[in-house]
Automatic annotation (TrEMBL):
Ion transport listed as a keyword: no
Protein name: DNA-3-methyladenine glycosylase I
Organism: Curtobacterium citri
UniProt EC number: 3.2.2.20
Sections of the chain in a coiled coil: none
Keyword Hydrolase included in the entry's annotation: yes
Keywords: Glycosidase, Hydrolase
EC class: hydrolase
GO molecular function (one): DNA-3-methyladenine glycosylase activity
Length: 204
């Protein structure tokens, strides 16, 4: 753990491997692996961005651990988040998904995912989803020293939310879009002192 007194002792935990992680990623093996290998690493492909956008929408009101545990089932249910396939889902697919205990069975979120797949396909004519989302990378990234300093929204996420809504996307509020930007590496909100801080290559 960093000895910097500005970092609260409870906000970073040093594991048996000697690496400092935030409390949420320190104990649970699944969350620790996600934190160490995925969260905050750049994603630039359309399907990867669409998957993360979809899962962040499903996460709204729930814990991320719940979504991560169900991710294999989500991928199976939503055709590996292939926008072309999901955009063609109909009412029979909606009912099928509502009967799938492996995912979060929320009709509004299921419909939003189908809507967003169609919007993703349509966006290809104007550069594509990934380019649009990355175009909202801010000039600077936060540098939180404590969990309390980690923002949950920003001017950039609010602007991204507005832009996506204008393109026909749903369940893309500013808080959800901020979480997406964190997940994709567009902003780096790893705590100062974490072994992952600055490792994405996007921010130094």
């Amino acid at each position: 753990m960093s000895t910097d007194p500005a970092i609260a002792p409870s906000d970073l935990v040093t594991g048996p491997d000697g690496l400092a992680r935030p409390v949420w990623a320190a104990a649970d093996p699944m969350l620790r692996d996600y934190y160490d290998t995925e969260w905050g690493m750049p994603v630039h492909d359309e399907r990867g961005v669409f998957e993360r956008l979809s899962l962040e929408a499903f996460q709204s009101g729930l814990s991320w651990r719940t979504i991560l545990a169900k991710r294999p089932a989500f991928r199976s249910a939503f055709a590996d988040f292939d926008p072309d396939v999901v955009a063609r889902f109909d009412e029979h697919d909606v009912e099928r998904l509502l009967g799938d205990a492996g995912i979060v069975r929320n009709r509004a979120k299921i419909r939003a995912t189908i809507t967003n797949a169609a919007a993703t396909v349509a966006l290809r004519a104007d550069g594509g989803l990934a380019d649009l989302v990355w175009s909202f990378r801010p000039d600077a990234t936060p540098a939180p020293r404590t969990a309390a300093e980690v923002p949950t929204t920003s001017d950039a996420s609010t602007a991204l939310s507005k832009a996506l809504r204008a393109r026909g996307f749903a369940f893309v509020g500013p808080t959800t879009m901020h979480a997406l930007m964190e997940a994709l590496g567009i902003v780096d909100t790893h705590l100062v002192g974490s072994h992952r801080r600055g490792t994405s290559g996007v921010w130094h």
